[in-house]
Amino acid sequence: MKNTIENKFGSSIYERIDAVQMSATERQVAINAMRDADALVDTFIWFARKIEQLGAYLMMKPSVKH
């Protein structure tokens, strides 16, 4: 799991968590918080892209010309 976190968040952030003196439980809480924050950001990005796609779809509809 450590390798997955390093690849996902970058080694510098994970190194900072390792450098801080904390218990294993607190370390796991910090890692879980990073994972949750990443999931939340991914959700916002996905939602924003879907709104952009919807806007592009609505603007591309052919209009009735007289």
Task: Explain what you see.
With 66 residues, the protein is mainly α. Helices cover 80% and strands 0% of the residues. The chain has 3 helices and no strands. Helix 1 crosses helix 2. The protein is rod-shaped. It starts with a helix and ends in a 7-residue tail after the last helix.
Task: Please give the structural blueprint.
Blueprint: H1 2-9, H2 11-19, H3 24-59
Summarize the structure.
The chain is mainly α and 66 residues long.
N- to C-terminal distance: 63 Å
Please work out how many helical segments DSSP would assign: 3
Q: Which stretches are poorly predicted, pLDDT < 50 over at least 5 residues?
A: none
Number of domains: 1
Q: How would you classify the quaternary structure?
A: single chain
| Series of secondary-structure elements, N-terminal to C-terminal | HHH
Biggest beta sheet summary? none
Mean pLDDT: 79
The percent range for strand residues is: under 5%
What is the overall silhouette?
rod-shaped
- E-strand count: 0
The Cα radius of gyration reads 20 Å
Percent helix:
over 70%
Instruction: Tell me the structural class.
Output: mainly alpha
Keywords:
66 residues; mainly alpha; rod-shaped
